[in-house]
Each structure stands twice: as C-alpha cells, then as structure tokens.
Design goal:
Helix content: 25-40%
CATH class of the domain at 101-187 and 377-446 and 461-502: Mainly Beta
Structural class: alpha/beta
Strand order of the largest sheet: 3-14-16-6-5-19
CATH architecture of the domain at 101-187 and 377-446 and 461-502: Sandwich
Number of helices: 14
Radius of gyration: 27 Å
Largest sheet: 6 strands, mixed
Shape: globular
CATH superfamily of the domain at 101-187 and 377-446 and 461-502: Gamma-adaptin ear (GAE) domain
Number of strands: 19
C-alpha cells in the first residue's frame, strides 16, 4: 500500500510539472504574438536618450518614443493588487464651513477666486447613481461656477468686469444675499497665443476601466481637434516609470498625435511624481515665449510610487510653476478617485481642475470652454471685501473654504491665488445679517481686558454696504494691479432679480442641503427647483435643465 501511494504521488508531481511548462509556453507565445502584431521590433534604448521607458512586466502594450524619435514597444504591468482585490477608496478633504463673522470685529473678508468646476460634475455622478455625495465632495463655489452667467463684457484694457446684485436670502429671508460676478475678457480663438501643450497621461493599472483611460483617449482626441496648426503637443505617460510617447509635434499633424493617444494601454503602479517631472521638463524644452505653456494631467489621482504624498507633490508643482508652465488637471473614474490630491495640484500649479465623468462633460470642458479652460488672461486674482458695520451686523462667504486668505495676503504679491481664463465668469455669494436683526448665529464675546471694547464707526451718511477690492496679475507678470468698487445697499425684490442671481442662489441652496449644512436654515429642495426654473433662461446647452432634473431626483432619496 505504501509503494502504491508513493507511485501515485510521483505521478501527480509529473502531471503538475507538465501543466506548468505548458502554461508557460502558452503565455510566452501569447506575448510574442502581441509584440509581432504591432509590426515593430523592440529597439534598444540609445545612450543619447534622456527619458525613461515604462517598466516592462506583463501583457499590456504601450509605445514609448525617445527624444531622438526611436520607438520602443514595451509591455505594461498588470493591475495593482488593491484593484484586483476590489479595495476602492475615494479621497476628499474635510470642509469646515465658513461661519458668520461680526463686521465690527472682522470687517475684512479675503479670498482667492476659484474657477474649478470638478465638484459639480462629481456630485452629479453620485446623484445619477442614486447616492448622496460625501460632504467633502460638495464645494459650493465650484457648483455655482460650473454654470455660465451673463455679465457685461470688459470694454477697456482691464481683463474683467465686476458686477453686484443684492436681494433677500432665499433660505433665510431675514438675511440679505450679495451676488458678486466677474466676467473675463474673451479672446477669439484665432487671436489666442500659440500653445505648447504636454499631455501627461496616467496609464497605470487603476486606469484600466471604461470610464478612465478609454474616456481619457476620447476626450484628448476631441481636444486635439481644437488645437491650431502652430500649437504643439507632446505626450508623456506614466505607470511604474514615466516615458515620452510623443515628442513635441505641430498641431497640423493631428493624425500622428491621435495615433499616439489611441495606442495607449493601461497597467502597473503609479509613479505620478516622476511623470510630472518629465512633463514639465518637456514643456520647458519646447517653451513658447509669450505663449500658453501648459501641462494637461489626465488621471484618477491614485499616485502610489515614488513622490506620492500631497506635500511632496505640492512642493514639486510649486517649484515648477515658477518657470511659466501652468497645469490643468482632468480627473477621471470612480472608486479610487483622489479628488483632494488633484485639487492641491491644480491650485498650486496655476491651473484648474475638472472632473470628466462622460463624453458630454469632456466636450464641455475641452471644446465649448476651450479658451477659458486652457488660456489664462489673469493670474493670482484675489478679492477683499470691507463691510460697512453701519449696514452689516455679520456676514459669511458661501463656499470658498479652501480659498480663504489672511487680510495681509491681499497686498502680498508673493501669495498665490486663482486664475481666470479667456471669457470665464467667476461668481461668489455673501450671506449678510443686517444691523438690527436678532439672530442665533451671532455669538456673544467676553469684553476685552487690555484694549477698548468700543470701536468707533464712521458712517459718513453713506448708503454703501461694502467695498470690493480686487488684485490681479497679467499671466506673465509679477506685480499686481488693483480694481476697487463700492457697493450701494440697493436691495431688489427676489422675484425681480436677474437670472444670474436666482440661479446661483438655487445652486448654493442645493449645496447647503446636500452638505446638510448648519446654515441651510429654511432651505428645501422644492424652493431650489422653483428658483432654478424661474432662472433657467436660454440654457442653450441644457446645463440648467439638467440641474433642475438632478434636484428633482434628489428629493426621492435625500432628507431635508
């Protein structure tokens, strides 16, 4: 019996060995077939090349091109273990909402403008899937600024106009709501400066999903259709390493650019920091003087190799932006979408952040808003409001929590702030508690011991409620210019306000409800829908109608 058992064990061992050998031969044959099907041989890396080719590990394809034009066919890594095991986590920063501040104690409110739109399209993705978004995803200023508003266009050399409107606050009628809108100068596409674009594309394993790399490729193909013949495009990819896929190529060779995009495949870990370094290096090598030099990063933000912490990446971007190369961040995907990391990169890279959840959103960001997304007309734009304590008891800025600045930062030209693109609009709302209104949001403070508790208020008989000061720099400038406007307390009945006012208020109220904000007060979804419907306007692209539909559908699974 013992001998029989030994014979059976030996037989099983031989069978296993034979199966393993057969599997290995089959795998090797499969890999050889894939390389041959590309009809290219693998060229050795030449010593003159300054660029790394992505690491070859498994059976995903990508073509890397060295500086001297030699193409290498390489095979990318498999998906990372965390994706194969199904561990998906999205990253959002905690938002501590702006509170009401007493105008006598803190008369100045200072913040950087924000032209990002990522929050709204990301929130839409959650709602369309029947779920409320996490509170950290609800950045109300980005929701408001997702939509177009009709403001007077600049008529002089200044890059934008400043527009204001005052009415009652829809979600708290005893309060006032002040609407501030900036309209950027629109430069015709044919008059925009020549561009030096570097597409920095994440081809790691986490991007191997239909709503990631395939959507990236479709989106960038649409962008390629918009570039002009004197613009230039280079393509850098990164997975375990970073590599140059397409050297800087003139915009009239769209076929070559699209072929390079369409041949990309996904797989491997994510060396985002290395990719960013290489992209900026390529951008600087092809720098266009007095032009638009920009890295366009397409990723889910899941950096996990090399420089990957937010602090390290931010320092890297801050150093690189000094060379005049701006950064636009396009976010893709669900499950492991790292919103917080991409926000940081765009903010510190003198750029903007968009979330692309479908091809229609790609068309909005990269086609319809081509100029405002990718061409900056003013940088480091800051706003400082001084409130008149004769009129204002307390105030609070709705949103912009991650854009707040110290009062002294307003005049400090070394402090970074937001950018405005060609034709872009920027809108901000302040909720105001008028003098004489008793309100639970106003908290008492103990008397001071070492200085006077009585502050002298100068009324001068003025009807002004606030003064708006705005600083900005030219895209290539280092010294800011100042614009100043006084705002008279001229309140309009809510029903008679502009579509701009009512629609922005509806979006803000929707955000307060989604966050379950302590400041939502009497806000409700029915009022959101009613306000938005009354302010739908022409809505040529259907974005406002879509918003109304989202608000209606949210009622069914959200609690007021």
């Amino acid at each position: 019996m013992k001998k029989i058992s030994q014979l059976l064990a030996a037989s099983l061992l031989l069978i296993c060995i034979a199966c393993n050998e057969g599997s290995k031969e089959s795998h090797d044959s499969k890999s050889d077939t894939q390389v041959t099907s590309l009809n290219r041989s693998v060229s050795p890396q030449k010593s003159s090349s300054n660029y790394n080719v992505p690491v070859i590990k498994e059976d995903k394809q990508v073509i890397a091109v060295h500086q001297d034009g030699v193409k290498d066919v390489v095979l990318e890594q498999n998906k990372p273990e965390e994706e194969k095991n199904g561990f998906y986590t999205e990253g959002y920063d905690n938002i501590v909402e702006n509170k009401f501040l007493a105008a006598t104690q803190e008369p100045l409110s200072t913040f950087s403008i924000d032209v990002d739109e990522a929050a709204y399209s990301n929130i839409r993705r959650f709602l369309q899937n029947g779920a409320l978004p996490p509170a950290g995803a609800v950045r109300i200023e980005e929701m408001i600024n997702y939509f177009d508003y009709v403001y007077p266009k600049p008529q002089n050399e200044e890059p934008f106009t400043v527009n204001t409107e005052i009415s009652e606050c829809p979600w708290s009628p005893q309060h006032k709501l002040v609407h501030i809108g900036l309209q950027g100068k629109e430069i015709p596409v044919e008059n925009l400066p020549n561009s030096n674009f570097v597409f920095l594309i994440d081809v790691s394993g986490s991007m191997d999903e239909p709503n990631k790399l395939p959507l990236v490729k479709s989106s960038l193909n649409m962008l390629v259709d918009q570039i002009r013949e004197n613009d230039r495009v280079a393509i850098v990819v990164y997975a375990g390493n970073a590599g140059l896929v397409l050297p800087s190529t003139k915009g009239n060779d769209k076929t070559k650019i699209k072929e390079a995009i369409n041949e990309l495949g996904a797989g491997g870990s994510t060396a985002g920091g290395e990719g960013i370094r290489l992209a900026y290096k390529i951008a600087k090598e092809n720098f266009v003087q007095d032009g638009n030099n920009r890295v366009i990063l397409a990723t889910d933000g899941d950096f996990n190799v090399g420089v990957s912490s937010e602090d390290e990446l931010v320092r890297l971007i801050e150093n690189e932006r000094k060379g005049g190369v701006f950064l636009s961040v396009l976010g893709f995907g669900i499950g492991n979408y790292q919103d917080n990391k991409m926000q940081q990169l765009a903010d510190k890279g003198n750029g903007n952040h968009s979330y692309i959840d479908n091809i229609n959103e790609a068309k909005k960001v990269l086609v319809k808003e081509f100029g405002s997304t990718l061409f900056t007309i003013a940088k480091d734009v800051k706003i400082q409001i001084e409130f008149n304590p004769v009129k204002v008891q307390a105030y609070r800025l709705v949103g912009y929590e991650n854009r707040m600045l110290a009062a002294e930062d307003f005049n400090d030209d070394t402090k970074d702030a937001g950018e405005i693109g060609s034709g872009h609009t920027v809108t901000a709302l302040y909720e105001i508690i008028p003098v004489g209104v008793s309100d639970a949001f106003i908290k008492p403070v103990d008397p001071l011991k070492y200085q006077s508790n009585e502050k002298k208020i100068i009324s001068n008989g003025t009807n002004e409620i606030m003064t708006i000061k705005l600083r900005y720099k030219r895209p290539d400038g280092d010294i800011s210019k100042l614009i100043q406007r006084s705002v008279v307390d001229d309140q309009t009945n809510l029903a008679n306000t502009s579509d701009n006012f009512r629609f922005s208020a509806a979006v803000a109220e929707f955000g307060l409800l989604l966050r379950n904000s302590e400041y939502k007060q009497q806000g409700n979804y029915q009022q959101v829908i009613s306000l938005a419907r009354s302010a739908k306007g022409k809505d040529e692209n259907g974005y406002r109608a879509e918003f109304i539909g989202l608000a209606q559908s949210t009622i069914s699974f959200a609690k007021n």
